[in-house]
Amino acid sequence: MLARCDLAELLKEGKPNDELIHKCFGQIIEAVAVLHRLDIIHSDLRLAQILVDGEDNIRLSDFNASQYPNNVALGYEKATNCLPRDYAALNTVSSDLFVLGSTLYELTTGHPPYEELYADLWRGPTDDDDQLRAEIRRKHIADYRAEQQYKQGDFPDVSQVFGGGIILGLWNGTIISANDALTLYYADLS
Q1: Which helix (H) or strand (E) holds 5?
Q2: Out of 3.30.1490.190, 1.20.1640.10, 1.10.510.10, 1.10.357.10, which CATH number does the structure's domain 3-113+155-189 have?
Q3: Other CB atoms closer than 10 Å to residue 8's CB: what's the count?
Q4: Considering only CA atoms, which of 70, 76, 69 is closest in space to residue 98?
Q5: Contact present, 28 and 56 (Cβ < 8 Å)
Q6: Which residues lie below 8 Å from residue 114, measured CB to CB, with a gap of 6+?
Q7: DSSP of 64-91, one letter per residue?
Q8: Mean pLDDT, to the nearest integer, of 78-95?
Q9: Domains in the chain: boundaries
Q10: How sure is the predictor about 2, in pLDDT bands with cuts at 50, 70 and 90?
């Protein structure tokens, strides 16, 4: 089945209904669990990398940055999704689980974690080098602030979000595998 769109595009059209969000939530966790069983770290999980087909099933895509046995990852997650760590070290299951939490947060809320830190960014294309340098500086500052909040355990509030306990557990490291997250997801559904 061909992809209809990716989840980022779907969210731009407006927040999907709860049934679709719940379905995608579980399928994303299941897809990451399969990757981890195969010793693959996606390394760049985000809504734009998750395709939705005509039957509203998801497919992970873009494995360019992925890490698999005997090969290092070629990339990292974006700052709003990323586990603060030594970026010279290999990506890990823990870093993939952290970004899974951020991806699920964006799916359920319709915006990335710490979106407010990026509110003043990107006013559009420019030929002005000074304006471009200032834009890059503002993004670096916002990335740094997001990373500091994560390091301090100051996560966005998920108390009123579907799967909030799973998202928080993925962020704070109390959920140590995608299989554990999947078990909690099924328990939340019952």
Answers
A1: strand 3-6
A2: 1.10.510.10
A3: 15
A4: 76
A5: no
A6: 80, 142, 145, 146, 149, 156
A7: TT-BBTTB--S----GGGPPPS-TTSPP
A8: 72
A9: 3-113+155-189
A10: low
Residue 4 is inside which H or E element, if any?
Answer: strand 3-6
- What is the model's pTM? 0.88
First to last CA, the chain: 30
- Token pair for residue 139? 């993004």
Annotation says 120 is catalytic: no
Helices (H), the chain: 7-12, 18-37, 93-109, 129-151, 164-172, 178-189
Compute the average pLDDT of residues 51-64: 91
- The DSSP string of 37-60 is HTT-B-S---GGGEEEETTS-EEE
Selection from 16, 35, 51, 29 nearest residue 187 by Cα: 29
In whole angstroms, what is the distance from residue 146 CA to residue 107 CA? 19
The catalytic position among 6, 18, 39, 44 is: 44
Q: Mean pLDDT across the stretch 28-39?
A: 96
Contact 114, 149 (CB under 8 A): yes
Q: Pull the structure tokens for residue 133.
A: 């340098």
DSSP state for residue 159 in the 8-state scheme = T
